[in-house]
Write a structure and sequence with these properties.
about 20% strand, 6-stranded parallel beta sheet, globular, 15 helices, binds 6-O-phosphono-beta-D-glucopyranose, alpha/beta
């Protein structure tokens, strides 16, 4: 086999993320023949495990069909396990020896290395330092390091981590995952905007009244309350997933599809946003609602044993942002996110201004809206006015509807992790977060997070399964959002 060899190392191989996401993703990519032939998957963790034990942890998440059983065994044959600590070099030396051996059995061709850090943040620095000291390529192949949030806790800690990483790796070796960038509809945003002539003339403050990016979940913190209480919803999804979507909605057209051209435009948007102020934020925390049909709804956020009884951590937040540039001055961008709400839905909603010179009876015309539903049930639809069909002359609101399930019925949409991991193999960083993007996202949110936490501002209680605090709707209305129903 003369294909170059690759190793994909999963640090934290026995953890939740590895079991639920990374191993299943590697299997699907392998099954679909999307990976190089000569690849070894190496699990690394502290526990005394074997490949068999690892397998029993992730197999159920791999959804192996009856006719794929042989292929799955082939996948398992490519898996190995190394037991090692995160804070001394013994395990990393074992890993190096494994890679050297792999090179020797691969016609001595230099091994390309992908290191996935599915690890808690307190070991990030040690592990990356050990990798640098022991496990890098010699310049005749490549090394790419994939890291998962949290990338710090605020601007200061994130800068500290970024400085540490940039001493060890070049920017083109670092792949900061934000899995929302791997979602079909998020990847579709640029095509919709820059691939359709009708969009450009109306995509600005003259025509758009507001942009809403919302993320709702109808479940609570699940078994993750311990982590969640140190983060809160603003760090968990707003600072990263929603902020990334905002940049794609608001950015100027890049000079080309080149990675750095795109990331440059995204950073310019972030630079034009001032830190959010407390007056432009509503935070909430869910309380029990036994009437809602979800097992978690019986307990409020603070009833979880991993959450302090006086926790002021928000499980819901609405924040209003303004992009101060020629295109967007005066247009509010709402980001709304929460757990324990009435539905699971993530979407981007562009609300257009009223028509000028309205000739219809007062109040009949509704604002046009363009909605991109990210999750679940991907769709793009436009709410428009139409004549009521039939003899009458009245108007009504309807949808031009591109629901993927009907239009692209039978087309499998890959999971976000599948796309992103494949992109790392291919060396494409378009959908990964550059250091300066991260820095600006924290710059915008750190002051308000500090204020909320230092003043111990109590989130508004909302019932599990509700729409969240009514105060959020009020703030949106104050900024001109019109609830069209
Ligand atoms: C994660 C958050 O980044 O995204 C979770 O930590 C959240 O709290 C998850 O549930 C949502 O991802 P998805 O793909 O299910 O919308």
């Amino acid at each position: 086999n003369f294909d170059p060899p690759y190793v994909f190392v999963v640090f934290g191989a026995s953890g939740d993320l590895a079991k639920k996401k990374i191993y299943p993703t590697l299997w699907w990519l392998f099954r679909d023949n999307l990976l190089p032939n000569n690849v070894a998957f190496v699990g690394y963790a502290r526990s005394d495990l074997t490949v068999d034990k690892l397998r029993s942890g992730f197999e159920k998440n791999c959804k192996v069909r009856d006719n794929e059983k042989d292929a799955f065994e082939d996948f398992i044959k490519k898996c190995s396990y190394i037991q090692g600590k995160y804070d001394d070099d013994e395990g990393f030396k074992k890993l190096k020896a494994f890679i050297d051996e792999y090179q020797a059995t691969s016609n001595n061709q230099p091994v390309n290395r992908l290191y996935y850090l599915a690890l808690p943040p307190n070991v990030f620095e040690n592990v990356t330092t050990e990798l640098r000291n022991n496990c890098m390529d010699n310049g005749d192949s490549w090394t790419r390091v994939i890291i998962e949030k949290p990338f710090g806790h605020d601007l200061k800690s994130s800068d500290h981590l970024s400085k540490h990483l940039s001493k060890l790796f070049k920017e083109d070796q670092m792949y900061r995952i934000d899995h929302y960038l791997g979602k079909e509809m998020v990847q579709n945003l640029m095509v919709l905007r820059f691939g359709n002539r009708i969009m450009a003339p109306s995509w600005n403050r003259d025509h758009i009244a507001s942009v809403m990016i919302s993320f709702k979940e109808d479940f609570g913190t699940g078994g993750r309350a311990g982590y969640f209480d140190t983060a809160g919803i603003i760090r968990d999804v707003m600072q990263n997933h929603l902020m990334q979507i905002l940049t794609l909605v608001a950015m100027e057209k890049p000079a080309s599809l080149d990675t750095e051209n795109i990331r440059d435009e995204k950073v310019k948007v972030l630079k034009a946003i001032k830190p959010v102020e407390l007056k432009d934020v509503v935070v909430g925390q869910y309380i029990a609602n036994p009437d809602f049909n979800h097992p978690e709804a019986k307990h409020g956020y603070k009833d979880d044993e991993d959450v302090p009884k006086d926790s002021v951590t928000p499980t819901y937040a609405l924040a209003v942002f303004h992009v101060h540039n020629e295109r967007w001055e005066g247009v509010p961008f709402f980001m709304r996110c929460g757990k324990g709400l009435n539905e699971k839905k993530a979407e981007v909603r562009i609300q257009f201004k009223e028509v000028s010179g309205d000739i219809y009876p007062a109040g009949e015309l509704k604002r046009t809206e363009l909605v991109m539903r990210v999750n679940p049930d991907e769709a793009v639809y436009m709410k428009l006015m139409t004549k009521k069909p039939g003899m009458g002359f009245g108007v009504e609101e309807t949808e031009l509807d591109l629901t993927y399930n009907s239009r692209y019925k039978g087309t499998r949409l890959p999971d976000a992790y599948e796309r992103l991991i494949l992109e790392v193999f291919m060396g494409s960083q378009i959908n990964f977060v550059r250091t300066d993007e991260l820095e600006h996202a924290w710059r915008i949110l750190t002051p308000v997070l500090d204020e909320l936490e230092q003043k111990k501002i109590k989130p508004i209680e909302y019932k599990f399964g509700s729409r969240g605090p009514a105060e959020a709707d009020e703030l949106m209305k104050k900024h001109g959002f019109v609830f069209t129903g």
